[in-house]
Amino acid sequence: MAQTSTPTHADKRPTAVELIGVEKRFSGGVHALGPIDLAIGRGEFVCLVGPSGCGKSTALRMVAGLATPTAGTVRSGGHQKGQPASEAGYVFQEPTLLPWSRVWDNVYLPLRLRGVSRSEARPAVERVLAQVGLEDFAKAYPRQLSGGMKMRASIARALVGEPSLLLMDEPFAALDEQTRFRLNNDLLHLWQEGRWTVIFVTHSVYEAVYLAERIVVMAARPGRVLAEIAVDAPAVRDESFRRSVRYDELCRKVSEVLLEAAR
Amino acid sequence: MEKQLVTLPNAPLPFVDRLAVRIAAPVIVAALALGGWEAYVRIAETPSYILPAPTKIVQTLWSDRAELSAAWIVTLKTMFSALGLAVAGGVVMAVLFSASRLLEISLFPPAVVLQVTPLIAIAPLLSVWLGDQPWLVLLLCAFIVAFFPILSNTVAGLQSVDHGHRDLMRLYGASPLQRLWMLQIPSMLPYFLTGLKVAANLALVGAIVAEFAVGAGGKQTGLASTILESGFRLEVPRMFAALALVSFTGVAVYFLIHALSTWLLSPWHDSAVRRDT
């Protein structure tokens, strides 16, 4: 059964990411987030769900080291305070591909910045391009790709450094529904193979239930955690899960928590 | 998965977009204008010291080719040296501005003052200071006018870097130099090239105007002096010949930079891509 409240992961995985009393206030005085506590196990797929302004993206940026908490501690793997987590891959809301670089060079970028030569990087770049199905588009420029393909390239770029942690900030929000469903399935498939830790931010309850092992439901003003809901569904999911009774129940459950908070 | 790259349209181009039409239309207009001019001069028997016929100007271009080309080369040298200096100075200064806000707020106002003061008012002062080196006065004048568009466009370009791309560079630990080379310079390129187009034209204007204002004293004189001298002697066909060379230079440089800009930007930038609507 789905469980509400504190994390009681059945499997006692070692912690990969931990937020302890984390709070974020912007210089304008806006209380964006927290204090929140959150622990994410190694290899776990967690979705942060909530309305705009609930601080879910802010939390993700803090885990990546792109933002610093006003109070509290963020621990993630080996990353030092204030330093970007080098072993994390990050997928932004926009594909953020460099328009003047071909797909191959865009995917190569994280390795290039790390000082890896092109020839050394070739196997890794070609492997991730194949994983996301873009092997035939290595030489294309981003503007020649569809929205879905741009996002695939962006995911390939996040995976090329073999991260242990994948941070995704509403990556599929701008895509049409068919493309989003397909990318959901592809992402799950990649995760089955790679088993990295995933923190996936979305405002879509349906997407969260489809993807996550555990859903962290958040509310706004100030951003806080309302509930954590374990998704006790088969680890290997496909379109049949989307049509199952279990899926409906879980969606309803998450929606109810969100509605409750909005009242 | 999605496939198929965006393909170029196979449908016939609209009439006005066909290359032949785009070349033929202005050529026809120019031919009509020149023909009308020629006819008017011949029928009205206008003396060539008032208005020379186009054929007379072409004749002069050929018969005076030695003096004209010498003067042309002087003007070209002034123009391109000034443009080179403006590009180097403008880009370096813009990069420094992007690195230091203090530098920007202290040095931008003087640059603006220099820009808004008419060149023709500065030129006599420069020639008082540097009277013994008139070529340096010309160079400085052309540089002053060409510098600002490069600086301001490059500054705007460096500031226009996408926030997501900035985050990307931070996330993967780019050094300041890597960020400059891989992100800021390509981001500012479209802006820089727009500035370059304006600056090249202004460098030509600067080189000509300064020579009018200062008078090129020395042995090496440019096209502006040719125009002035020919005017004193009422050699109007030669004035027109020199004028034609000035215009031709401006047009040629414009197209050169346009071609450079298309070559650099067409694979990726919207401004250089023709859209099928």
What is the gyration radius of chain A calculated from CA atoms?
18 Å
Profile the largest sheet of chain B.
none
Domain count of chain B, please report it. 1
The top-level CATH class of the largest domain in chain A is Alpha Beta
What general outline of chain B do the C-alpha atoms trace? flat
**What is the terminal separation of chain B in angstroms?**
26 Å
Mean pLDDT of chain B: 87
The CATH topology assignment of the largest domain in chain A is Rossmann fold
Strand fraction of chain A: 15-25%
Helices and strands of chain B, in N-to-C order? HHHHHHHHHH
Q: What is the third-level CATH name, the topology of chain B?
A: MetI-like fold
Low-confidence stretches of chain B: none
What does this structure look like?
The complex is a heterodimer of chains A (263) and B (277). Chain A is of the alpha/beta class and 263 residues long. Chain A is 36% helix and 23% strand. In chain A, the strands form 2 sheets. Chain A has a 6-stranded mixed β-sheet with strand order 5-6-7-3-8-9, sandwiched between helices. Chain A starts with 14 loop residues before the first strand and ends with a helix. Residues 1-10 and 79-85 of chain A have low confidence and may be disordered. By secondary structure, chain B is mainly α. Chain B has a single domain (61-264), classed as MetI-like (MetI-like fold), CATH 1.10.3720. In chain B, 77% of the residues lie in helices and 0% in strands. Chain B is flat and about 75 Å long. The chains are: A alpha/beta (263), B mainly alpha (277). The A-B interface holds A 64-66, 84, 86, 88, 90, 92, 94, 96, 98-100, 109-110, 112-114, 133, 136-137, 140-146, 148-149, 152, 161, 179, 182 and B 1-3, 5-6, 162, 164-165, 167-174, 178, 182-183, 186, 189, 267-270, 273.
